Amino acid sequence: xxLPPELPLPRSLWRDTASPAPAPVKxxxxxxxxxxxxxxxFTGLSAALSAIEHGLSAIVLEASEVxxxxxxxxxxxxxxxxxxxxxxxxxxxxxxxARQMYRISLDAVQCVEDNLQKYxxxxxxxxxxxxxxxxxxxxxxxxxxxxxxxxxxHFGDTxxxxxxxxxxxxxxxxxxxxxxxxxTHGGIIHPLNYTRGLAAAVRSGGGAIFERSPAVSTAREGxxxxxxxPEGQVTxxxxxxxxxxYSDITQATAAVRKTVIPFRSAILATAPLDPDLLATVMxxxxxxxxxxxxxxxxxxxxxxxxFGGRGAFGREDTKAAFDALETAMKKTFPQLEHVQITHRxxxxxxxxxxxxxxxxxxxxxxxxxxxxxxxxxxxxxLMGRRVVDLLVGGRPELGLxxxxxxxxxxxxxFRAPAVxxxxxxxxxxxxxxx
Length: 434
Ligand SMILES: Cc1cc2nc3c(=O)[nH]c(=O)nc-3n(C[C@H](O)[C@H](O)[C@H](O)COP(=O)(O)OP(=O)(O)OC[C@H]3O[C@@H](n4cnc5c(N)ncnc54)[C@H](O)[C@@H]3O)c2cc1C
Prior knowledge:
- Keywords: Oxidoreductase, Plasmid.
- It comes from Aminobacter aminovorans (Chelatobacter heintzii).
- This is FAD dependent oxidoreductase.
- GO terms for molecular function: oxidoreductase activity.
- With 434 residues, the chain is α/β, with parallel strands linked by helices.
- The protein has twelve helices and 19 strands.
- It has helices at 13-17, 42-53, 86-93, 95-118, 138-155, 165-172, 191-204, 254-257, 275-278, 319-332, 377-391, 415-432, and strands at residues 30-38, 58-61, 77-78, 131-135, 160-164, 179-183, 187-188, 208-210, 217-221, 224-229, 232-241, 261-270, 287-290, 297-301, 304-310, 341-351, 358-361, 366-370, 402-403.
- It is globular and about 65 Å long.
- The protein starts with 12 loop residues before the first helix and ends with a helix.
- The model has no long low-confidence stretch (mean pLDDT 93).
- Bound molecules: flavin-adenine dinucleotide (FAD).
- Flavin-adenine dinucleotide is lined by residues 38-44, 61-64, 68-71, 73-77, 79, 214-215, 242-246, 249-250, 252-253, 265, 267, 308, 346-349, 370, 372, 374-377, 380.
C-alpha cells in the first residue's frame, strides 16, 4: 500500500493563537459506523454533526490534524459570497434560481452563527462586522453598485450599502479605492478555533475523529463501504468525501479529485501595530476585499493586519510570491512600510468550472461536497450538513450546487499551466483597468 507523505504543518497566525487541541488519536483497528467521512475541515465536521443529529454514528478520518486543510488556514472572512454574482446567476438561470441561491447563502452564514451558539465556540471570536468590497476603478464601482441595486430589487436585500470614495478611504486607511459596497451579512472569525470547536462538538456528541489517519483506499462490500487507513479500517453504510482542494492526497478520493482545480492562496500577518498606526487603518474593524480579478483582501486580528491574495503557482510556496504580496500590501498602505511581517502561510482553494460548489451523491451511498471557490467558511458549514440530508433521503435546498455527479475538469493534466495562463490574463486586465 502506497502511503501518502507526511503532511507538514503550516506556521500560521491561527496555529500560534489557537486554543489547544486534544492529542491526535490514530485509527489503529477496525471500526464500524453508519457514516465514514474523509476530511476534518468544515465540510467533514459539519457532516459528522448532522449525522449525529440524525441519530447516526459517525467516524471522521483526517490525513493530518483537524483543520490542517483550508479550514484552519483561511482568512476568516465569513460571507454570503459566491464567486459568480447573483446578478449573473439571475441573467443565466432566472430570478427564481438567483433568489434560491441568495436564500442558501444567508442560510450558510446563519449556520455558522447557529454552530457557534449551539456548541459554545466562544473562542472563535466571531463578529458580525460586515464585509466591505472596495472598487479599484470607476467601472468596478459601477458594477458593484448595480449588483447592490439588483439585490435590493430582486431579493429585497437592504443589507448592501454603497459608500463613496472618502468613506472608503476613511474606513480602510488606503487611498487606492474609488468607493465600495458594504455587505452587512458577514463577519470575521478565528477559523482554526471554529474548526476545533466543531471537532469538540463532534466528539462530545459521540462521534470519533481519527487524525494522522489518511484514507488510502475504499472498497465496496455488499451494502457497506470499507475505508482503509495505513493501520486500520472503517466499515460504514455511507461515505462522505469532504476533501475540497486537498482531494489529491490519496487514491481514496479519486472520484472527486479531477472536479476541482486547486489554486494557492496566501496570507501575511503583520506584527501588532502601534496604536497610532492602527488608528489609521481598518477603522471599522471589518473585512475588506478588492474588486480586482486577482483579488486581495485584508482584515484585522487584534492589533495586526492580515493581508491575503494569490500565492505561488505549483506545489510549494515561494519567497517571491510572499514578497509580491508584501509589496502589494505596502503599496496599498504606505504607512505600513516599516512594519514587520511575522507570519506567512498559504493553502489551497478549490476552483470549479462553473465557479460554484458541487454537492451530491455519487452512488446511493457516497456523498460529496466541495469546490467552494475560495468562499467556503459559511457554505461548507452548511453543505456538510446538507450532503448528509441527501444521503438519508432528504431533499435539501441546494440550488445550482446540486450535482448528480461532480463535473470533471477537462484536460485535467494541463490544469497547472492553464491556471498560470488565466492568472496572467487576469493580472493584465487588472493592470489595464478592465
Ligand atoms: C489561504 C486561504 C484563505 C481563504 N480565505 C477564506 C475566507 O476568508 N473566507 C471564506 O469563506 N473562505 C476562505 N477560504 C476557503 C475556505 O477555507 C474553504 O472553502 C473551506 O475551508 C473548505 O473546507 P473543507 O472542509 O471542504 O476542506 P478543507 O478544510 O480543505 O479540509 C479537507 C481536509 O481533507 C483532508 N484529507 C484530504 N485527503 C484525505 C484523505 N485521503 N484521508 C483523510 N483526510 C484527507 C485534508 O487533510 C484536509 O484537512 C480560504 C482558503 C484558503 C486556502
